[in-house]
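Consider the following input, taken from an annotated entry for Protein ARV (Muntiacus reevesi).
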Amino acid sequence: MGTGGRSGLRPGKGNAEGVTAGKGKTHEATVTSTTAPSASCQYRCIECNQEAKELYRDYNHGVLKITICKSCQKPVDKYIEYDPVIILINAILCKAQAYRHILFNTKINMHGKLCVFCLLCEAYLRWWQLQDSSRNIDPDDFIRYAKEWDFYRMFAIASLEQTAYFIGIFTFLWIERPIKVKEKVNFTLLLKALLLSSYGKLLLIPAVIWEHDYTPLCLRLIKVFVLTSNFQAIRVTLNINRKLTFLAILSGLLVESTMVYFFQRMEWAVGSDCAIYKSQDF
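Applying the prediction step yields:
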């Protein structure tokens, strides 16, 4: 989520690798960049969310100058000079500027891999809880550790629950689009934003490593952090108000909870994050 920086920017005009603020007499230099990006490749000002044709301007003799936004008179993207660690910290703090930099002004194609990795961690945690709740404690029973089908089932259920969550968000935004959202909703970009903003699920990795040290409270806190990141990603991507974003998140949780309830009624799996330890009460 926070691996933008100098190496993650889009190629061509606006690539800020090695960017430094321009110094000297810029009126005597000539601009080397000649082509503007297409409409589908517009950048965004991280401060006011206005479209920008470039992030910086390249002059002769290696002099680069960050572009100033015509709307807010601030640098279009100050993060092009920042270290990726600083960008990551700002993203963890859910700053809208950091999210705009990552979603609009960088080219990150790791959302698919990140999603699969998070689902694998979540599936393993659920699978371990399912095996741990078994009453068969024979140390020689290696069969219960070799139930690959149960792990695949946990992975499929976790994937379906996340899909239901996204469907709930998309359905709500599609219904409210004629009233609240003036521009056409780019669901592809929104999906990428939701997948990238779910990076908080990586905190499940310690749960996989130190299994017994994780509590339901920790899992709930991880869930709240992921929802907060999703909230900011939706608001930044669609440029909508907090109320509409909150209702979209709530709709997604409602559809996801319906899916979880269905699985619990069918006794197919251990519940989701909020009910993952439910089997231990029996």
